[in-house]
Structure formats: C-alpha cells, structure tokens
Amino acid sequence: MTHRRRVMITALVFLLPTIVGTLIFRLIPIGWSFVLSFYQWKVFDTATFVGWDNYAHIFRSPISLGVFVNSAVFSLIYVVGSVVLALVLAVVLNNGLRSSAFFRGAFFMPFITATVAITLAWRWIFSTRFGVLNNILMGLGVDNPPAWLADPTWALPAVALVSIWKDVGFYMILLLAGLQTIDPTLYQAARVDGAGPVQRFWKVTVPLLTRSLFFVLIIAIVRSTQTFEITYALTNGGPNGASTTLAFFVYQKAFVDFDVGYAAALSYIMCVILGLLTLVNFYFRRRWVHE
Amino acid sequence: MIYHSLRAALVFGVAACPVLAQDVTLQYLSWDPEQLEVERAAIAEFEEENPGVTVEAQALPADKGYWPKLTAQAASGDLPDVFMMSSGFVQEWGAAGNLLDLSGVISDDELAAYYEGAASVGVVDGQRVAFPQNWVAPVLFYNIDMFEAAGVEVPQPDWTWEDFRSAAKELTVDTNEDGRPDQWGFSVYGRYAHVEPWVFRNGGRYLNEDMTGLDLNDEAKAALTFLTGLVTEDQVAPMPQDMEGIRQQDIFPLGMAAMWVDGSWNIANTRTIVGDNFRWGIAPVPMGPDATEDTAAFYAWADMLAVAKDTEHPDLAWKFVQHLTGSSRSASDFLGGKVPAYIEIAESEEWLETDQMPPNKGILLEIGEDNVYAGFSPNWSSWRGYGASGAGGMNGELDEVFNGRKTVDEAIAAFTAFGNDVLSR
Amino acid sequence: MSGLTLDAICKSYGSAKVLHDISLSIEDGEFVVFVGPSGCGKSTLLKLIAGLEDVTSGRLEIGGRDVTGLEPVDRGIAMVFQSYALYPHLTVFDNIAFPLRLQKRPKDEIKRAVEKAAETLDLTARLTYKPGALSGGQRQRVAIGRAIVRNPQVFLFDEPLSNLDAALRGQMRVELSELHQTLKTTMIYVTHDQVEAMTMADRIVVLRDGVVEQFGTPMQLYRRPRTRFVAGFIGQPGMNFLPARVVGTEGGVTAEIAGGTRISIPVAAEGLASGDTVELGVRPEFLSLAGPERGMEAHVRLIERLGGVSLLHGTLADRTRIIASFDGLDEVPESGSVHLGFDPAQAQLFGPDGLAKPPLAAVGARQ
After folding, report:
1. ipTM > 0.85?
2. Chain B neighbours, 3+ Cβ pairs < 8 A
3. Between chains, do A204 and C77 touch, taking CB under 8 Å as contact?
4. How close A194 comes to chain B (CA, Å)?
5. Spatial CA neighbour of C323 closest among C302, C344, C308
6. Which of A182, C186, C204, C332 is 20 to 30 A from A223, comparing alpha carbons?
7. Alpha helices in B235-339 (DSSP H)
8. C175: domain CATH number?
9. End-of-domain residue from the set C185, C204, C228
10. 42-71 in B: which are within 8 Å (CB) of A?
C-alpha cells in the first residue's frame, strides 16, 4: 500500500466517528423530517400520507400565521434591541471605564447563567401584583401597570426583554473585540480634523466596526429564530399564544400535540425563511461592510 | 491480577445466566414519582407472590417526559408491559392499537367491585383498553373560618348557583377600601378542572354526538356566561392576569380566596400549604339552573393502567394491574383526593381520613355514585388548550374573557372554530 | 503671525511628572525639531501643543492667541501621525476631504482644495484608491495632504518617518524640507533620530526626562553643546568622552588624561578646583595621528572603512574607548598602537554636573 493511500485511510478512520455521528444524528433526521412533513403521524400510531396538507394548513390557519407574525415582531425587537444596546455598552466600556473588567464580567454573566434560573427570577420580577417591576411602577405613580406575562400585548415584549438581557453581554464582547482592533490614533486624527465625540462615533467607530456588526447581526438573527427556553419557562407561549414564536410552536406541535408531520413542515418553512434572510444579508454585506 | 478477576467474573456470570433466563421481568412506567414510592411496597409484595418475577418500575413526571418517552417506546415497538394511561389520551392510544383489550380477562363479578363510572372511561370502541386505578373529580373547596367570620352558611349539596354567587359576594372583602379586595370570594381560571364541573352540572356539553366537532349547547354557553360574569361583573374572583406569579393551586390554601373549584387531587397540596392555618371542607359543585337531575352530570375521570398490546406476558401483566388496583392495596396508598377505583377501599374508614382536613371526603364517594361525565375526545388536550397555552384553545380563549379582553361569544366562536379544525385533522 | 509660545508648561499623569517647566519661543515659519531619547516627553509635548491632552499648568500661545485648553480643531493646527492614521474605509480623496467636510464647506470648494493638495503631493493618480492599496510613502503623503487642506498655522509631525525603510526615509526627508520651503508654515517635528533633526531643523529642542537640555540651531548644538548629554546625543559617530583630572585652573583648565598627558583647554574654570574629576569631549574628526610626545596612546581595535571616511576604533590606556575619523584616502594603521592628538580649542570640558564650561573668549575679552 502506498504511503499516500495509507495517509488517506488513516484520515478517513479519524474522520469516521464524526461522519457517522453527523449522518445519524443530523443528516438522516433532517432528510427524514422532510419526508415526514408530508405525513400525519402521532408517533404512537401509524403514519398517513397527506401530501401538501400540512403546508396548506400552515398557510391558511390564523394560528400559525399569527405565530409567523409573532416571530417577526420578536426578531425585530430582539435584534435591534440587543445589537444597539451591545454597541452602546461596548463603546462605553472601551472608553476606559474604571474597573471595566468588572463590568465586562457583569454584563456577560447573564449569558452564561442557566436559563431556568434566569426565568425564575424574571417571572417573579414580572409578577403582576407582587413583582418588583410593578411595585416600582406603582410607586412612581403608574396606576395600572400591565400584567406583563399575562397580557397578550406585553407578553411577547417581556420575553424579548429577557432574551435581550440575557444575550447582550455576548454581543457586547464581540463588538468590544472589534472596537479594540480600531487604531486609537484614528480617533486622535479625527479629533484634530474637528470631529466631536458623536461624529467620531459615526464616522470612525461605526464604519470600522461593520465587520463585527455584520457578524453580530447574523448571529442575533439566527438566535432570535431559535428562541425557546425563555418562552417555555416564562410564559409557555401564552397568554393564548401571544408569545409563541416559531421554534416554540414547532416544539408544541411535535412534543405536546404529537403532530410531528405538522411540526416537520413548520421547521422546513423556518429553514427556508432563515436561508432567505441569510442570503439577503450576505448580498447586502458587499454593500455596507468595509474590509 | 485484575485480568484474572475479570475472567472469573465473566465465567461466573455466564454460568449464572441459565438461572436468570427462566425469570420474567415486567416493565412498569408511571407518571407520578411520589405515588411510585408508595407503590414500591405493593410491588415488592407482588414479586414475593410470584417467584421469578421482577418488576422494573420507573417514574417520569407527566410534564417532564412521560408522554414523549412513552410515545417513542410505542414507535419503536418497545412499550413497557404496564403503564399509566390518562382519560384524556386513552381514546387516541386505543385507536392507535397500542393497548391490549382486557375484556376477556376480567369477569363481571370482579368488575362489579370497581366504580362503574371509573371503569367505563377505559372502554374505547367496545374494547376495554385501560383499567382504573383511582378516579378524581373537581369539588368545591371552601374556607370554613372565612364563612363563619362572614356569618354565611357553608356550601350545601342543594345549593343553587345564586346561593353560590351571593355567598361569594359576601365573602369578597376589601378591608382597606383601596379598590383591591384583600379577600376574594372565589378563584377561577379557564382551565378544564375549573370550568367543566360547572358546565356539566348545568347539563352543558361541548362535543357533538360523534365527537367530530365542537357544538356547545345553550346550557354550556349559559354556564360559561355565569362563570365569566363572576370575574368581570360580580368581581368576586380575581382576574387570572392579576395572579400571575402565584401558582393557581396555591391561591385558596394561602387564604386569598374563600372558595375554589378544582380537582380533588389538590387535597394533598392544600393540606401541605394550609397546615393548621384554617379549617376547610369540600362540597359538590352546585347544580345549574338549566339542568335537571338527568342532564346534570358530575365531571369525573379516572387515572388508569394499560397493558401493551404486544406484551410478552399478558396474563402476568393483567395480574399486576389487578394487584395495583384491587384489594391488595390499602387506603393509605391513595393520597388525598384520589379515590380508589376499588369500591371497598374507597369506602373504608381509613380512606375517609375524618381526622384530617377536609373532614367530609365522603362527598367524593357520593359523587362517584351519581351521574358522571368525562367529556374527553381524541385530540382533547389540543382543543382544550391544556398544558401548552396554544393559541385558540379553550383554555387561552376563556382566560381572555376572564381578563376582560374578549366577550364570551367571541371566545366561544374562536375556540369552536379552532376545536373543529383540530378535530377534523 | 503664527509663532508659538510655550510658557512654563508642566504635565503630570497622576503623581508622575513628565514635563517640567517647558518654556520655548518659536518664530513664525520656523522648522523646529523636538528630539530626544525614548520617554523624554517629546511626543507628550507635541500632544499638548495639539490639544489632544491637557496641560497640568502653564500657557500656550499660537499666533499670539492663548489656546490653552482649546480643542485641537480650534487651535489652528494640523497633525501628521506616526502611523499616518488614515481612515481605511475612505478613499484618498475622502481622507483628504474629511476635515473640510466636517467644516461643511461647499462641495466645489472641497474638490478644488483636495485636488490642489493632491497635485502638490503627486497623488492625483491615486485619488480613488483606498489607503490599503498605497505604499508607505504614498500613505505618508495622504496624511500630509489631509493636514495641508486645513491651512493650519502650525504643522505638527509625530515621528512621521519612523515606519519607513532607510532609503525611503532619506527621500522623504528631502521632500518634507522642500515642502517647508514651499509652504513657509511653522512646523514642529518630533523624532528620536538626530540625523533628521540636524538636517531638517532651523532650530532643535533637545529633551531629556521632561526637561529642555538645549534649544538652538543645529550648528550651535554641534559646536557648543550646553550639556554632556547634548554633546553625546548630537553627532554621528558620537563625541569621545575622556575622563580627566583637573591639575590647574590658571588661563584655562589644565587636565590630565589617561597616560599622564596634560592638556590645557581654553575654557573658564568656573568653580573647578584641582583634583576635580571632569570629562573632555572631543569629536572623532578632531582626532589626528600625532607623535608620542603630544598624543595619547591608543591600541587599535578595528578600522571601519566607509569609503569617504574611515573610522578607527581604539582603546586608551585607561580602557576608555575612542573613535577617530579620517579621510577615506588616508593611511591608517590596522592594528597595533597609535598616538592620537587634538587641538585643545576644539575640545569641550564637562564639569561633574554635566554642564559644559564656556570658552574663555565667550566669557570676556581675554585672548
């Protein structure tokens, strides 16, 4: 056996576990669930072929259309909120706040804290009658503060708020790293040229941060579609489905209602939407990201 | 050294195998870890009475993986021999062909020892695919101390809905006059155990004849109007959204409301939380104004055990089921408000627990002998909105009415449409 | 009038004082170089003049205006940074136009100004390029262009040639000097390279540890360094320092150097007494081959032949290293011992305090 051949086979042997694992746990299930989306199956009974029915139902039913709307609204609030907030925090920290190491850690903490613990605390904070938030609001003179988790208008923003709070530290670290690659003398040059702090931010910081911003944006968008844990523990998708987003809806359909064909169809639609979003992002990348 | 020990162990293990091969293992899956602990004694007893039989018992809480695990096992053809089956799902599982028909193995005499209503829930399409272990029914909990303080007579079995409503009004107290009652007369949400008792006691029904769609009769609509009115107009019960942050089953035991309708299984939790703080009792849910003795039904259903259709030991499995549900159990195994399906145990002094709150558990027995109705259908949990707060389910829609955001008619229209959609798929 | 006046400028970072009482007066149109070793405070001083940092105490005037405490943009200055600090995401045109756009000038005015600067700096062909596509020298010019368009009263340069290779550095030095002649604007230039200082400056400020050692023309610094530090800093190869002992203070200072040779230097004795330890400073070009009766004996270590000049590296009797430079065509022994002598009038004498003793002729009419 030639040396080259031996090297190839060794490489293959080392790769085999990963390949097999990926095949069994990812690729085959992904393909299988596409097939499944054309069936109606409760898992414990036998599957019935229904063709495009699942997909048709998804696009007809006001419930599932409402979920798409919820997802869009949530993604908008989450992405804009967390990226903007992360940018502000990163800029503040980068300007040499004293004990910035402490703040870096503090802002990052929620990201690595267990979601269950976080949502328990926030459930209590949001509690209508007994929560800290409403008590503060009432103290400030707000007469009828909203029932955050039980009001269809506020449940989704509440979930978005907790999600932003949890993730902003992570995005902040990414943007902070990007900020620190910016040559500080550029700010001095801009100052000499006559740029005030705000102008320096928009004309120097932001353009040179576009690579990091793009990265953070993509991650935030993808994460926003995957949101599940916080919804599950905070509102369970309620009230009356007001805070149900796509990933949570797929879970409900698959593991609560045991309607796996429907859930599979939903997840493929989700996949298509995400794919389109990413394509759009990459197309615009050439236009606004400075290399 | 280690090598020799391993080799010896292997030889010994192989030699011991023929002995094990004769033994039988029964798999048993439960959704109640606390109850399983209580059942361990009965299981050990069964193993003694049947030498060579080992029971491998496991418990997974219902909301933490019981159903997904069972479903996965059904799909792979690997169901436990005996497992718990709820009234809400028995029809789907029976129709799917996963459950063994037990009609042949139980005689009429044996059957008579069990509550008829409880046993009938396990019959799907003429096949007895599940057997009751215990049954439960929503009852009216009431705080005796609060009633005495207000000078109101405690709920009686012959109460009308108006009696109830005026009592609730008397018991809603706002001591500091800040517009927020410090004590509510009643507590109610949109969930099944809060609403159905009233609806069925008024002769109301949700489903049409062949359970293919939702078609609320007028009695049902009247009941829903009454219930929602208690919150939105009479204001004797808090809006569910105001109570966000407190478990709904703790509102009554914490002394926030004087009355509460929920399943009898809550007796255990209520005891724990109330402790010695106040005296309380239970009463049957009052009969509605639109019902007659014939049309009024008590809402009750059974927690059952089923045997896998393709089990290797059908006789042994049924024997085990009998053991867990029948005379070999004692009253102390059935905690709180779970009524043993085996009549003899239910009627024993021990089960009645007259030395504890509530002092009148016998009410449940009377309910069991009366007209009962379960009202489940395939996909029940989906259209009822039970568990997950899925949009359009009855649960969520009714809560919107309770929270003052929709009218009863809007909600009924919404969940009827949703329910019909679910039932048609 | 766009001269500069620094009046008792002090700068401290916390409790660390980095600039002590700097007072300078710079004429309009002068090219002044701040030079010194790393950490001497020259860049800090430049930043204070620019306004990028605040003075701890003292006053700064530009063009007769008190600009202490003003923002950089209000001081009438422009700055070229060591790393050029070009905006990498903008084209050359936009980089140069940047300050003008901030001032909200009309578009055609901006276009004209940028194109003019580009022409002056030979950048017209590169206006659409981004800095990443330019060479080091071209980037340098863009940075200068960005400074030029602002028509400042004072140009500030922070070690602009440090990042260039030797050949380019030489070329850019000439270009900058020519630029100064063209624009005739006051320029302040910071460098650690004394060659740049000597060749480009009208006057040089030598800084050490936050203090001005000497402020004068290049030739003044070369011929008459005020301190031992300046003497050793200016000149390539550096001045030779011979440890010596004072033996007489009449009619100049007589000092005994290694090997017992006694030399009388025509400088004022000024507080020196017999027995004091001093240093004689002699530049390499003033050392010549001499006979044993007049010169110091030096053991030849090495000859460096640069072509036009030959450098003789030797060691004296007291182990002091010495360098003598000769014309490249002269005969210079490669090894062994030589005797080196020098004209006392060309030597400096440094007292124990490091200060040079002034020449007798400067003190009064003596000789």
Report:
1. no
2. A
3. no
4. 54
5. C302
6. A182
7. 266-274, 314-325
8. 3.40.50.300
9. C228
10. 67-68, 70-71
CA of A210, closest CA in chain C: separation in Å?
10
Strands (E), C86-139: none
Q: Which residues of A touch B240 (CB under 8 A)?
A: 150
| Confidence at residue C220, expressed as pLDDT on a 0 to 100 scale | 93
Distance from CA of A106 to the nearest CA of C (A): 28
Q: How far is C87 from chain A (nearest CA, A)?
A: 7
C104, C168 contact by CB (below 8 A): no
Q: Which residues of A touch C (CB under 8 A)?
A: 183, 185-186, 188-195, 199, 203-204, 207-208, 210, 290
Do B245 and A43 lie within an 8 Å CB cutoff? no
Is there a single domain that holds both residue C11 and residue C52?
yes
Question: Which positions in chain B touch A127 (Cβ < 8 Å)?
Answer: 244-246
What sign has the CA pseudo-torsion C352, C358, C359, C365?
Answer: negative
Alpha-carbon distance of A179 to A204, in angstroms, equals 10
Q: Do chains C and B touch (3 or more CB pairs under 8 A)?
A: no
Interface of C with A in 172-231 (CB under 8 A): none
C98 and A CB contact within 8 Å: yes
pTM: 0.81
Minimum Cα–Cα distance from B241: chain A residue = A150
Q: Which residues have C-beta within 8 Å of that of residue A98, sequence separation ≥ 6?
A: none
pLDDT digit string (tens) for chain A, length 291 residues: 789 999 999 999 999 999 999 999 999 999 999 999 999 988 888 888 998 999 999 999 888 999 999 999 999 999 999 999 999 999 988 887 677 788 888 999 999 999 989 999 999 899 888 889 999 998 898 888 888 888 889 999 999 999 999 999 999 999 999 999 999 999 999 999 989 999 999 999 999 999 899 999 989 998 998 899 999 988 888 788 899 999 999 998 988 888 899 999 999 999 999 889 888 888 888 777 776
Instruction: Give φ, ψ of C75 to 5 degrees.
Output: -95, -10
What torsion do the CA atoms of A148, A153, A156, A161 make, to the nearest 10 degrees?
-50
Residue C176: domain span? 4-228
Q: Which CATH class is domain A63-288?
A: mainly alpha
Q: Hey, what are C89's tokens? A: 């995401």
* Number of domains within chain C: 2
What token pair was written down for A267?
Answer: 């997840």
Statement: residue B194 has pLDDT above 90: yes
The share of chain B scoring above pLDDT 70, in percent, equals 94
Chain B residue with Cα closest to A151 = B241
* CB nearest A208 (choices: C78, C89, C99): C89
Chain B residues lying within 8 Å of A128, measured CB to CB: 241-245
Longest alpha-carbon distance in chain C = 79
Q: Do the chains A and C touch each other, judged by at least 3 C-beta pairs below 8 angstroms?
A: yes
| Helix, strand, coil content of chain C in percent (nearest 5) | 30, 35, 35
Task: List helix spans (H) across B202-341.
Answer: 218-232, 266-274, 314-325
C315 and C353 part of one domain: yes
Strand duo C309-316 + C296-305: pairing: antiparallel
Which of B97, B242, B393 comes nearest A128 by C-beta? B242
Tokens 């530049």 label which residue?
A: C283
Topology annotation, domain B6-137+301-346? D-Maltodextrin-Binding Protein; domain 2 (3.40.190)
- Report the CATH fold assignment for B138-299+377-424: D-Maltodextrin-Binding Protein; domain 2 (3.40.190)
The pairing of beta strand C296-305 with beta strand C348-350: unpaired
Contacts of C215 (CB under 8 A, 6+ apart): C24, C203, C204, C205, C206
Q: How far is B99 from chain A (nearest CA, A)?
A: 11
Place of tokens 């699942």: A54
CB contact under 8 Å between A290 and C88, yes or no, is yes
